[in-house]
Write a structure and sequence with these properties.
83 residues; alpha+beta; two-stranded antiparallel sheet
Length: 83
């Protein structure tokens, strides 16, 4: 397959399940840059981040407390980067 302008290549996977925002609805957009320094930005979308499901009652309580702490903090906009 020939690779040219507009032809995506590569694959990226970012596991966000350990993140404090896991299970929450967030706004996200993709940003891509080429070697010439040109960037492209996708449209912003809302999505729910995946979260790990805990079966142990104590683990569930800890995660519940973690979510309450996150909600009580002022809203922040974390940035994730593959670099």
């Amino acid at each position: 397959m020939a690779v040219g302008p507009g032809t995506p290549q590569g694959l990226a996977h970012l596991d966000l399940t350990p993140d404090p925002w896991a299970g929450q609805t967030v706004r996200a957009r993709l940003v891509g840059a080429d070697q010439a320094g040109q960037t492209g930005v996708s449209t912003e979308i809302s999505l729910r981040l995946p979260e790990r499901m805990f079966q142990h009652p104590l683990a569930r309580r800890i995660i519940s407390a973690r979510k309450l702490l996150l909600q009580s903090r002022s809203v922040r906009a974390p940035r994730f980067s593959s670099s």
